[in-house]
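thread from #wetlab-drylab

HS: before we spend reagent money on co-crystallization trials with adenosine-5'-diphosphate, can we at least see a predicted complex? here's what I'd submit
DV: go for it
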Amino acid sequence: MANEQAPRVQRLDATLANQIAAGEVVERPASILKELLENSLDAGATRITIHLEGGGMDLLSVEDDGVGILAEDLPLALERHATSKVATWEDLQAIQTMGFRGEALPAIASVSRLELLSRARSQNQAARLQVTGGMAAALEPAARAPGTTVRVADLFFNVPARRKFLRSPAAELSRNQKVLRQIALANFPVAFQLIQNGRSLVQFPTATDAESRAARVAAIMGEGFLANALYIEQEDHGLSLSGWLGLPTYNRARGDEQYFYVNGRPVRDPVVSHALRAAYNDVLFQDRHPLYALYLELPPGRVDVNVHPAKAEVRFRDSREIHDFLFHTLRRVIAEQGGAQPRVTVP
Ligand code: ADP
Ligand code: MG
C-alpha cells in the first residue's frame, strides 16, 4: 500500500512563494516600473527619476524624494504581505493608496538582484539592503538624501525560462515609456524623468496649473489631440468626471490613446469601455477610436480595487449608475460641441 500513501502537505519556502506571486505581478520590466512608480507616489514623492539599461532588463531603478523607509523596516518591506498601507479590513474598504497588497517588492526581489536604499525623512542616515534572488544580505549604513531608490538588476537571472519571454531592449523600453506616460498623465504635480543608458529620453516637469497640465497632456498625447479636445468637468451624486475628451472628428484606427483613471488609478473596465463606446456611437465609425484622458473620482467605498493582482481592474459597487453617469455626461458634451471644431483625422 506504500505507493497509495497520500502526498504530504508542505509549506512553500518564502522565496518560492514569492516567485509564484511574481508570475502575477512581474511579467516584464514595465510591470516592475509600474509597481515602483506606485510605491514612490504612495510615499508622497514630488520628483521621480527612472534609470534604464537594456530596456530595463539589465537595470531598472526608480529614485524618489518621498517619505522613505525606516532602516529597521527595510527587511520587512521585502517580506510578503508586509505593508505600511493597510492594517484593518476597514482600511481595505477605503484604499487611498496605489498599493496595498504588500507583494510587489518581495516578488521583484525573488527574480532579480534588488537593492533597496532609503532614508526616512526623520532620520539623518540612509540604509541599504541587497537581495539576490530573494536572499537578503545584511543591512548596511549608506548615504542619501531623504527618499528611496529601488534598483532592480538582471531581471529573471535565476528564472531563465521567464527571461525568454522578454523582447528586445527597444521593445521593452517602449513599454516602460508607455507605463510612464500612463502614470504621468494622472500625477501632474510630480516631476518625472526617464534616463536610458545615460541619456535623458523623457522629462515631465512639475505641472501645477492649467497651462502646464495642458502642456503635459500635449507632450504625451500630441499637440493635435490638445487642439482637438474639450476639457470637461462634471459632478453628480458624489461622482466626478473631468479631463480631456477628444472630438469625434479626431480619431484613430487603434484605441491606444485612451486613458481612463478611477481615483487616480489607470484601469481597464468593461463598464467604462461600454459607456464610452456608446457615447461616441452615433458620431464615430465602428472601426475608429476616440482619444481621451478622463478622470473619474468617487468615494473609495464605491469601488473595489482589490480584484486583480496588478490592480489593473476594479469593480464598481453600483456599476449601472456609473455607466449611466459616464454615458450621459459624455454624450451631452459630444452632442453640444456640434462639430464646430476643426475636422482632422489622424492615422
Ligand atoms: P505595497 O505597496 O502593497 O504596500 P510593496 O511590496 O510594493 O507593497 O512595498 C512594501 C512596503 O515598502 C510599502 O508598504 C512601503 O511601506 C515600503 N515602500 C516601498 N517602496 C517605497 C518607497 N519608494 N518609498 C517609501 N516606502 C516604500
Ligand atoms: Mg507597492
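DV: Residues 35, 39-40, 43, 64, 66-69, 77, 83-85, 99-105, 148 surround adenosine-5'-diphosphate (ligand 1) (CB under 6 Å).
HS: ok that's useful, forwarding to the group
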